[in-house]
Amino acid sequence: MSRNAKINTLLLLVVVALAVLPLALGMGDHKEEPFTGADAQAETAITELKPDYEPWFSPLYEPPSGEVESALFALQAAIGAGVLAYYFGLRRGRRQGEARAGVDAGPSGPDAAEATGAGGRQPSV
Questions:
Q1: What is the distance between the terminal CA atoms of the chain, rounded to a whole angstrom?
Q2: Which residues 6+ apart lie within 8 Å of 123 measured at CB?
Q3: Closest CA to 39 of 57, 27, 21
Q4: What would the DSSP string read from start to end of 61-117?
Q5: How do residues 62-98 score in pLDDT, each as one tens digit?
Q6: In this structure, how many other beta carbons lie within 10 angstroms of the beta carbon of residue 36?
Q7: Cβ burial, residue 116 (10 Å; 0-12/13-18/19+)
Q8: Residue 113 CB neighbours (<10 A)
Q9: Please, are residues 33 and 40 in contact by the beta-carbon 8 Å criterion?
């Protein structure tokens, strides 16, 4: 197994552990909604500290349910990941293309003069 494959396997195991351990250890069992987002937790904390607080902004679109909100968030994350993957893939492809173009072009610089003759010209046949 190559070094990259070992690193990728280790990273995959870490991601799986981060996803499974909170569920397996029962974290959040004592809560009504165990895995709420930071927005919901902030709203709860604000209403506990200052019950008469009124938000100064309301959302432009309120999804009909939590499932739709989660699906829209997942779609947003997928689009962002796709844009990043495209960008990094494009950069890598350009770098590989430049490397191949440099190899295909042949020698250049001071060594090229030696390869073509003393004057830098191709010998005539």
A1: 53
A2: 116, 117
A3: 57
A4: ---SSHHHHHHHHHHHHHHHHHHHHHHHHHHHHHHHHHHHHHHHT---SHHHHHHH-
A5: 888 888 888 999 999 999 999 999 999 999 999 999 9
A6: 14
A7: middle
A8: 14
A9: yes
